[in-house]
Amino acid sequence: MSQGNYTPRREHKFTFGLWTVGNRGRDPFGDAVRPTLTPVEAVRMLGELGAYGVNFHDNDLVPIDASPQDRDRIVNEFRSACEENGIAVPMATVNLFYDPVFRDGAFTANDKSVRAYALQKTMRAMDLGVECGAKIFVLWGGREGVETDGCRRPDEAVKRLREALNYLCEYSLDQKYVYKFALEAKPNEPRADIYMPTTGAYLALIATLDRPEMVGVNPEVAHEHMAGLNMTHSVAQAWEAGKLFHIDLNDQIPGRYDQDLRFGSANPKAAFWLVKFLEDVGYSGPRHFDAHAYRTEDYDGVKEFASGCMRTYLIFKEKSEQWNADPEIKALLAEISETSGDGRGTKFNSQHASELLSANFDRAGLAARGLKYERLDQLTMDILLGVR
Q: Most buried residue, 43, 52, 155, 226, by CB count within 10 Å?
């Protein structure tokens, strides 16, 4: 069994949100079980644990009704704490879901004044993020949805969302910010249905924007699993399209409410394939843990939770390196590669098409060939279970 070093380092780019380690354990059936953790205290905790960075919604850091003087004091204290503890701020976001004004959505709300306020709040959150060094801005439309489709035509909602994104891109350029926007999908909760339920839905929307090069996605494990989807496949599609601007790591039991469990704690095999993909393709962005500790925990337990997220990622990183180097797995992959395809490529030209149309394929022989995927999967399990 490996006795590897699973201590996080800055180059791993592990980040947490103020709302993650600062989660007080409140749920729809029970009040908070932990005292409020100030932003400065959260930064100190993450510094002690070896994290790379901290992210925040605007109101995680600055209360929504703070005076300008209080806002400046809070931001200055936060920035000083980050500098003292060696903590970066790679990403910022905006809370457009908590305040009652957003009960019918933000960018897609029927009320024009609500839509205008949502733009104002987002621009101010962008300003705040830039003050703290953020270069990625995540947008999660938690209230951009419905309980009844009688309230608006869904295509009108998509148009409103597109208009808002186009506006924010222009604001970023006008202010000479260098933001990349990362859109985060979720199928439901807190709305019965959210307009952009999956990463694929956002990828389709991005192609229709005025400045698609500025906008990518922020896939989240729990949100894709809530929809019954394969997170690694969603991430791979985003990566292949050049749109994986950020990622949220946590865990989720399919078919449940949004659980935000410690990374790898519910579906370790799925988490392994995700880590392996990120490491194999050389993803260099933040590895953000959007999760929170069990409601049973005090702040020592919160530290265990945060350390566990990073440790599990590093274990799977080591396991992926072992998987790639395993001689039997390499031999199986070479055999699979040698027997795949007709060897003529797939890019169209007239000669290739003519040859392909006249080719004779041994259908029975192709169908009879064993592919050894069972063996490959069991070797994977042996590695994950520490017996290989």
A: 43
